[in-house]
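Worked problem 6 (solution included).
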Amino acid sequence: MLVVLDACVLYPPSLRDLLLTLAALDAFDVCWSEPILEELNRNVVADNPQLDPIRFSEHTLGEMRKHSPEATTTVAQTEIDRMDNHPKDRHVVAVALARSADAIVTINLKDFASQILDTAGVAVITPGQLVERVLDEAPELIGYAVQRMSSRWTNPPRSPADVVELLAGHPTMVAAMGRTRALLT
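Solution. The predicted structure is:
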């Protein structure tokens, strides 16, 4: 399954970590565009004035590009302009079509109402729906991803249960993390 990750699902660090960890474990393939990464960078830096913008760009975005070089997709402006969803998210739909993606993962479902997407058979799903799908198909991957995240998070340290609780705080992740919590016990 190939999914386009919208900037809004890459913004919360814990959600970004879970989605990219699952992608690294081959639960699904991901793609994005430079405009998606630029939107992520712009929003994170604007909301976190204490953050070094160069470090975020070089470290976080640099690592994403390094570990998923095939994810970045370039789409011509003419293709973006012909999309029929909300104007600010047309570039995301254009990426999905250019890559023949199965789904767009977003929290802003209303911005993706599109006859073009419907005709192409591209689903628009939340991160929780994506994780639920992985739980249905390969639940061990979710448990392993949470364990890996826990082992990487050292400041402050977080147990797997702590990681699940943090992820459960994301609006679309409550049900998926409830299932994950049961897996960890």
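Discussion: The first strand starts at residue 2 and ends at 5.
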